[in-house]
TrEMBL record:
Protein name from the UniProt record: HAD family hydrolase
Family: Belongs to the HAD-like hydrolase superfamily. SerB family.
Residue ranges of the region described as Disordered: 24-49
UniProt keyword annotation of Transport present: no
NCBIfam families: HAD-SF-IB, HAD-SF-IB-hyp1
Cited InterPro entries: HAD-like_SerB, HAD-like_sf, HAD_hydro_SerB1, HAD_sf
Residue stretches of biased makeup (Low complexity): 24-34
GO MF annotations, alphabetized: hydrolase activity
Length: 311
């Protein structure tokens, strides 16, 4: 718990580990994007005020959880691994707790995120990267494809149609993020890099999770390597934890924002987009203290669903 407390206190500061995580993620993203096929055709959507067509030094960076996709990618990935007998019911309940908290409180609590990532690392330790990539493709079809926000998807497509590159930037494993980016026809993905030796996961991270300041460092590293001008780039996120990333681009957007990000965006004149229904937006905006009972109930419901074999 002491380590988690340290993580919470330092989440808005760029540490040496943040820089390492960001640089590792940028390198992994550039390698994976070289293998990415051309974007697939997407549904037509109204053209937004931005981006500028033909600006090759501009790009867009999208957070994943609750910005591009409803819920947390790690939770959906965990459900898929559980279905394939990678771990037991106890670990599934932990994933369900984190997902329920995230959906109700509307914030990425560092303690919950770190707990889930530690569990995920222990689960994949000793498995081959190629094995998890193949399984990730199946899990995307089973649990993620139907949870993409159409509005955010249209924003990403507008950047692609303008001839710009579009990257996911997420604390989810870079392998999972790369699969999602490829399926959406995006350029590539920046994500948390798990150490592997000889194609086998060691159970350790390179640096730290790509969260908070680490995301900003990853975007800076990628922009430098790709010759991008950040003042001409855009970034999209739902979380106040991503203020460091949003602050370094010229066109920041708050998408499905939590309360803190909404307030910050209004104070700084950032554009807002909310693709949730009114009911969902109200639910996600419940303060943490008021939502404790709902969180507990949501976890119980998740376990009950498992017992009915709906996972």
């Amino acid at each position: 718990m002491a380590a988690l407390g340290w993580f919470t206190r330092r989440r808005h500061l760029a540490t040496e580990a943040s820089v390492l995580a960001g640089e590792a993620s940028a390198e992994a993203a550039r390698k994976s994007s070289a293998q990415t096929p051309p974007p697939s055709e997407a549904p037509e959507a109204p053209e937004p005020e931005f981006p500028v067509v033909g600006d090759e030094r501009a790009a867009a960076f999208f957070d994943l959880d609750n910005t591009v996709m409803q819920g947390a990618a790690l939770f959906h990935f965990g459900r898929g691994l559980y279905k394939r007998h990678f771990f037991r019911k106890r670990e599934l309940a932990r994933f369900a707790w984190q997902q329920t908290w995230f959906r109700l409180a509307g914030v990425e609590d560092p303690a919950h995120m770190e707990d889930v990532r530690s569990s995920a690392l222990s689960i994949v330790k000793g498995h081959r990267v190629s094995e998890l990539m193949a399984i990730g493709e199946e899990i995307y079809d089973e649990y993620m494809a139907d949870r993409i926000w159409p509005g955010t998807r249209a924003l990403a497509q507008a950047h692609l149609d303008a001839g710009q590159r579009v990257w996911l930037v997420t604390a989810a494993p870079v392998e999972t993020a790369t699969i999602i980016a490829r399926r959406l026809g995006l350029t590539g993905a920046l994500g948390t890099v798990a150490e592997s030796v000889g194609g086998v996961y060691t159970g350790k991270l390179v640096g730290e999770p790509l969260h908070g300041p680490a995301k900003a460092e990853a975007v800076r590293a990628l922009a430098a390597a790709e010759g991008l001008d950040l003042s001409r780039c855009a970034a999209y996120s739902d979380s106040s934890n991503d203020i460091p990333m949003l602050s370094i681009v010229g066109h920041p957007y708050a998408v499905n924002p939590d309360g803190r990000l909404r307030k910050h965006a209004r104070e700084h004149g950032w554009r807002l987009r909310d693709y949730r229904t009114g009911r969902k937006a109200a639910k996600i905006g419940i303060p943490a203290a008021a939502g404790v009972g709902a969180v507990a109930g949501g976890t119980a419901a998740a376990v009950a669903l498992h017992r009915r074999r709906r996972f």
